[in-house]
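>> received
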Amino acid sequence: MTALIPTDAEDPVLLREALRRALDGGPALGLGMVDGAPENVADGLAAVIATSGSSGIPKRVALSGEALRASAEATAARIGSGRWLLALPAGYVAGLQVLVRSILADTRPARIEGRFSPVSFAEATLEMLRPASNAGIPDLYTSLVPAQVATLLDAADDTAVRAALQAYRAILVGGQALPEPLRERAADLGVRLVRTYGSTETSGGCVYDGVPLDTVGVRTVDGELRIAGPMLAEGYLGDGSLTARTFVRDEHGIRWYRTGDLGLVEDRVVRVHGRADNVIVSGGINISLDRVERIVRRIAGLHEAVVVGVEDERWGEASVIVAARGEVLRRSESEQLAHARDAVEDELGKHARPVRLIMVDEIEVLSSGKPDREAIRRMVADLH
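>> returned
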């Protein structure tokens, strides 16, 4: 057995050294585990990450040192290796992987001082661009969530912010779907975004711009995406039943992670349609709220909108759009809703049209930067 050391991951410098030891055999790190953490875990485990995603259901994902290394090595094989900026909480897998990649590349990660903002991002990047020796400046990388990308692009008229964005060889973007208008804005500025797909259970992103990393297998079973590869988690600490349901072996003995996402794999390109459990039944027809949300987010002024389901007297269930007031353009609420309804109808049919647009001061988010869908759903239910 290996000792498990709970940590709040507040100090990235100390965490990096502890992580280096964890990757080399222990002690393992317990991230986000407020209470109830065991004193010891199985040999080979390097980290246990407590995560609830946006659903609010807590899970403790057990990751081996081998899995974390395999993920970091596959990333380096795809996009290269260099120096990383830590702009996400290190207690989440995307932030933790920034540290793992830095350890394997033998580089010192930079970090955002204080709260994330265009100014702090530009200052941290500028510092990275100053060569510390005659070795020159390594390639720069970072990981962000779409909301951070949007914040930076909104401030890109500032020369320093724009130059900082353009300085990175690759900016990995994950945590949630990247709206197409956001990707296009970045491309127009020469900013190199890489859309990632994965989860804590896959040691972070394992599909880049729709293409699985070299050591990753992706297939669909009954429409659900499943992932195989050396970066898979060992399972869920203390929950053998959930582990058995989520990680399954096929007839050849290959271990697959059931993502719970619906999608397609065509010519090795992965297309994610949304969560299998994020579906409502409206008028007797199944509607993927993730697909509705993707369509809504293409509309100017609704790029960061969230779509949730509510009970509806007429249809049984219906979808509602929630958007921040600062993002919505100078259209009336009814005009903006009409535009969204038309766009959804064009792609999914009349039955999928949202019934309401609710504007709020700001979208509630989790500490990971993802929308807090459960809190948003409760708020909408109270208003609807």
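>> The radius of gyration is 21 Å.
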